[in-house]
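*** Query protein ***
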Amino acid sequence: MTGVDTNILVRLLTRDHEGQFQKAFALFNKDTVFIADTVMLETEWVLRFAYSFKSHEIRDAFIKLLSLPNVKTKNPDILFLAIEWTRKGLDFADALHLAYSKDSDQFATFDSDFIRRSKGLSKCVVKKP
């Protein structure tokens, strides 16, 4: 199994550097690949801010990527839940934070948009402290 860095995923998903894309593609074709949750979080940020990907484009790419049979993550259920919650208007980072806290009673934040958008998504209530 080979763990991968954000730049591997970015090359694979953007194909912005042909030589590096080919190497990333070959890696995904020959080996079991481990993607850390932190790499997913950073990849989402890079795709959104550096490449101007829309939320639905990132969501679709992540679903395809994580559905590959040779791709492993530590917490696939958490990642898929966070990805699903982006459909409800949460950004990926907030969705990931809430997904990891889903069994908590409360999640404290000063972010009013996060509070509003998270209503009804989890038994974990997002609110101001």
